[in-house]
Structure prediction request, 249 residues.
Amino acid sequence: MRLQGKVAIVTGAGRGIGRAIAWRFANEGAKVVINYSRSEREASSLAEEIKKHGGEALLVKADVSKAEEVKEMVRKTVERFGKVDILVNNAGVLIPAGFLDSTEDMWDKTLDVNLKGTYLCCKEVAPLMLNQKRGKIINIASVCGLAQRTALGNTPYVVAKAGVIGLTRSLAVNLGPTINVNAIAPGVIDTDMVAFFTPERKNMIVEETPLKRIGRPEEIASAALFLASDESDYITGEVLTVSGGRGMR
Ligand code: NAP
Prediction:
């Protein structure tokens, strides 16, 4: 029970990686805020599952790219649980678009959710953590934000995830020594986000990966648990790559 008594907000927790993180945190004793924007059914089922296992969960609908909705999400969290110890900025969208094919709408949507959403959630939660004199922020970036070569074609997404890494490092400086701010850079993980990859593309990725497989959401949850726990107290401003070796630097 490495997160006993902690309160954690996980954005985009109805599906995929966010769901695995929220579930893992709840199983480690955290009270979990399950944020979703569209996947109400999936988010509710996770909350039910957590409650069935004796945990506590609060369901909050909010679009992380909207400041007012983020504010309301954090207000509801404090109203219910009294504090926020851990923030996981996981909500993200991937709209496949190379530079020449990309549109302003694709750019705005990608940057708004992945980067501005992360900024807004940090902005709302950081003052609470500073008051509490402790906090852990974990941002879900991507290996492609670290210039992983095969993903560089997807311009808005690459820029957004590189931005998340820059934001992580800047916040580590701005919010130290009180708050630890780290990022996780997943390689390809088996979720809805990559369901559109062709079998040929998946085979190529597996071939390029030293551990010879695609990752599982639970494997990102394990890294998030480490960064949320006391075991990572002397780590900040880092990017932990979880990619089977494909994103090694
Ligand atoms: P996913 O299955 O497509 O899930 C995306 C999640 O983001 C959903 O829970 C979705 O919630 C949420 N979301 C999207 N827009 C939102 C918004 N405006 N406000 C709040 N939540 C929003 O993808 P995933 O693979 O789990 O991705 C999770 C994170 O990992 C993302 O940041 C992604 O970029 C990153 N990542 C994934 C991979 C991969 O290979 N899968 C690799 C590297 C990085 P709703 O359904 O409720 O809208």
